[in-house]
Amino acid sequence: MNPGIIYLLGAGVLFFTKDKLRQSIAIALSIIAIIAIYTLPVSQGLTIPFLDFNLILLKVDKISKLIGLAFAFFGLCSTIYASKLADRKYYTLSQLYIGSSIAILFVGDFFSFYICWELMTISSYFLIFNNEQPITKQTSYYYFIMQMVGAVSLLWGILLQYTQTGSLELTSIEYGLPFFLLAVGIKLAFIGLHTWLPQNYSNVPFHISVLLSAYTTKIGVYALYRLLSGTKLLGYAGIITAILGVLFALKQTKVRKLLSYHIISQIGYMITAISVGTALGASGGIVHLINNVLYKGLLFMVIGVIIYRTGKEDLIELGGLAKKLPLLTFYAIVAALSIAGVPFFSGHISKLVIKKAVHDQILSWGLYLAGIGTSLSFLKVIYFAFFRELDEEVELNERSDKAMLFSMGLITSILLLIGLKPHLLTDLLALDIKLHYFSLKYIWKGVEPIIIAIIIFKVAHDLIAPHHHQARNMDIYPLLARGINYLSKALSYIHNGDLGRYLLWVISTLLILWIKLLSA
Amino acid sequence: MITAISLVVVPLLAGFSFLFIDKYLAKFRKLFILGTGLITLLLSINLLIQVSNHPLIYNLGNWKEGIGISLIIDPLGGILAVLIAFISFIIIAYSLSYIKNHQLKYYTLLFLLIAGMLGMVLTGDLFNLYVFFEITSIISYVLVAFNKEDISFEASFKYMIIGSISGILILLAIILIYQSTGTLNLAQLVIAARNIPIQLKKVIAVLILIGFGAKFAVVPLHTWLPDAHSTAPSPISALLSGVVIKVFLYALLRVLFILFRIEELLALDFNNLFVYSGVITLFTGHLLAYRQDKLKRLLAYSSIAQIGYILIGVGLFNAAGLEGAIYHVINHAVVKGVLFMTAGIFILKSKKKNIADLKGIAYQLPLSSFIFTISALNIVGLPPFNSFISKWLLLHAALKADFIIPASSILIGSLISLSYYLRIITLLYSKVKEELTSIKVPYQLQLAPLLLSLFYLPLALFPNFLLLLIKKAPLFLLKTINYYNILLGGEEWIGLFG
Left (φ > 0), alpha (ψ -120 to 50) or beta: where does A497 sit? Predict the structure, then answer.
């Protein structure tokens, strides 16, 4: 059976249970799911008839299994992480959300794919919509509408593909490319279509942004891999996304906003890798995806604990946390080194595979630049949050964060493991070529951007130091809403409630139809 | 056989005998009302089981066909009869705790309305079709004005004026048909209509298109609907929006397909007429709903939009489109029923009709708000709910028939509808400082919408069960020779059973 079902059914159970019982059931479910995914035999399938086609509810291959494992593992960690803050709504919806994102990895036809896609949107909408943060009313609305545009476009693409080929099997698409591009582009927060992401991930309660950061965009990448891999032009788009994402990120002072833009930037890496179209490129993209789930999730967890203990998340106000929260600092450094791609940390592995796969000169240089930007922005976060000395110290409250630190420890150990023993991960993908990840050449390649970043950091310290700046609103999508509003207003205006006018409409319709038909 | 006519007789008799029950046996009033609803439902299910294999004809008083009154029931009639009886039963259950004043008048009218609708889908001749058409219409006018507020009088008046015009047009069409063929029996008309001169046929077509079109609110004949459906008592709104307009659509299709063969309809470009009027209807409905302040008015406009979806499916004039349309009729009846009933609960609780006044009501009415929320997502057409299935069927059928713009407008319509339903959902779940009101909503009131909303998932997950029945409907609606063959009592349906 599709392992996503475990979560979807579990959501119902969690809805009706309470307190400790609910907590332990949620954790137990996650563990069961991990085991279920791990033991799924590759190439097993399950097909049931529906309407006039077949639904392929289960279709396992290496890649879906690997991503599924990462998702399920992160699901477990985020459940433990949130155990102090979670309420019934969180438990139910998060299980639906995780469940549908895992289910989507294992379905083999477009129809079920679309259903899981929408389930994710619905459940994440209600996760974002939160009364503690009134601003989420608007941002979640924006989120849902934008995701719906993507979903509608996906559905249209699916229907085009279905009517043209007569098959709903989930393969690389042949028809309706622009619609699939739009759908996937919105889901994975392509630059220009990314506007829903930062405003949502930085405004929801932090345990929810931890959860959100791992799944939605990654499913977009997965869809890109399944449906559109080998679309060469996307490579350049990916680079633009990676570089612009990093530039936007550098500007931010709110850590979660910074991390949100980093999601976008890292997605750019994956787009570039997958669009190469070779098995190596796809593997690089997928490994990077898994790494990203882990270290980006870990970073969101770090800032979550900071918010939890200090109530602050702006780099302007933070500083000197290294002494007060040493364990957290350790986790943060591991995550930052991983994302920067320092040798012996996990990001190094995936970035190296991607570099090996990409042969285009422009793309390689773009990746290099994005790498420098990434290192630079995490230098900024680590330095200003943890090591900078502030005149007046940041105060900590005495709330217990043991569960949080424990779940972060789990992720950190996996990250370190991947970094030191990359073959554990890459063997699962059965990569063809053997890379010597720790040869001197590669180590130097991995360290190079960081050294450049440190130099820039020293030289341009004043520029990078967090400071307030004017936020400019460049979002053009609300204009579309204004267009609809205008049309609606015009229509309301002519419906003025005057019976005489309405009768005139009836009579003139009658006459027009009459003349048209009789003259035909 | 006998179930066919008793399906009309039971609610009709119940309506009138309620006068006595109310006066002399007041204790059994509730039991009587619910019992009648239940019996009607069971009878209709029984009828559907019969006709799904053997469409039947029933001559009242054993008069010969063409002289006496006859009922002809094919699978589509059976399906709609069950739909009417089922939604009515839920509405009756809801009304028991919703309608507190003038119960006598209310239930008498309600039963007559049910009888009228059932008559329309079961009848086998044009004259009775007109009779039941007028019964349904007149009762609707009265029920719209039931609240005795100024706006409901105005709405009812507008509805009546436009409704009367449509009634006259229908009557005129029927007279013309009778004059040129000499029969009013629908089955006999299949053959007889071939002799009507084409010019006259066109006139008749215009008359019934406008006549019935005004009743199921195709734009620009829709103007009465938002007023009427929003000012009626909530259970009546649910019934009007959910089933009454669909019954009129059924009547149009039945008559149109009997008068014209498919080839003639296509030659006259009727498929484009239907499909593109559907597109206009759905955009007008959605765009007008987008800016509504009043909840029930918004729902009413949304109903207009849904009629647009159904018209697109119908206008393809092929089996796939009709199946999608019929499935959408069923889904919309169920979902809009729930939406209006929950809206009624909100209005009862807050005593206000504006959406803005419903802020935070979810914290006082968690169950109703939850039902409203999933219903709203459902009607937008999001999976995993049932409306998605019918929209998928409609989309697929439209694309296959190369209607690209109509198909894409179905999706764009969904997007607009999400934008206004989401606004309501957001408001329902926003926190407010103080409690809205201390008005208690009776617990039983939530049972009816809850029961109806339990059908969402089965309808979505097991569509094949229902589609098996629905697939038989186009065989009699499109291939009218099959409909004629019912008259002969023959078993040889073309393309059916294998």
Answer: left
Rg, Å, chain B Cα set: 22
Separation CA A71–CA A103 (nearest Å): 11
Residues within 8 A of A (CB atoms), B 434-493 only: 463-464, 467
Asked if B29 reaches chain A (Cβ–Cβ under 8 Å), the answer is: no
Q: Which two three-digit tokens encode residue B292?
A: 């509504």
Would you state the torsion angle of the CA atoms of residues B423, B429, B431, B432, taken in this order, to the nearest 10 degrees?
70
Q: How far apart are CA A203 and CA A186, in angstroms?
A: 19
Provide the pLDDT confidence category of residue B489 given band limits of 50, 70 and 90.
low
Nearest beta carbon to residue A51 from set B416, B419, B463: B463
C-alpha B229/C-alpha B339 separation (Å) is 13
Q: Is the CB of residue A494 less than 8 Å away from at least one CB of chain B?
A: no
CA distance B294 to B301: 11
Q: How far is the C-alpha of B372 from the C-alpha of B452, rounded, in Å?
A: 12
* Contacts with B223 from chain A: Cβ below 8 Å: 495, 502, 505
Q: How far is A41 from chain B (nearest CA, A)?
A: 27
Among the partner-chain residues A118, A159, A520, the one whose CB lies closest to the CB of B395 is: A159
Query: CA-CA distance, B455 to B386, in Å (whole number)?
Result: 9
In angstroms, the separation between the Cα of residue A174 and the nearest Cα of chain B is 17
Surface-to-core class of residue A359, CB atoms within 10 Å of its CB (0-12 exposed, 13-18 middle, 19+ buried): exposed
Is B365 part of a structural domain of the chain? Answer: yes
DSSP bridge partners of B70: B59
Residue B65's pLDDT is 67
Give the helix ranges, DSSP H, for B268-385.
270-290, 295-315, 319-350, 366-380
| Interface check A506 vs B, CB under 8 A | yes
- Chains A, B: CB pairs < 8 Å: 120
Q: Chain A contact for B280, CB < 8 A?
A: no
* CB-CB under 8 Å, B396 with A50: no
Q: Write out the residue range of the structural domain in which residue B347 sits.
A: 267-461
Burial of B210 (0-12, 13-18, 19+ CB in 10 A): buried
Q: Which residues are paired to B72 by β-bridges? A: B57
Mean pLDDT of chain B: 91
| Spatial CB neighbours of A461, under 8 Å, sequence gap ≥ 6 | none
Structural domain contains residue B457: yes
Domain count, chain B: 1
Beta pairing class for A45-50 and B56-59: unpaired
* Contact indicator for B83, B330 with CB cutoff of 8 Å: yes
**Is the confidence at residue A333, as pLDDT, over 90?**
yes
Taking only the tens place, the pLDDT of each residue in B141-189 is: 999 999 999 999 999 999 999 999 999 999 999 999 999 998 888 988 9
Range A20-49 average pLDDT: 89
Lowest mean pLDDT among A299-313, A356-370, A383-397, B460-474: A383-397
In a domain, B183, yes or no: no
ipTM over 0.90: yes
The three-class DSSP label of residue A56 is strand
B149 is a domain residue: no
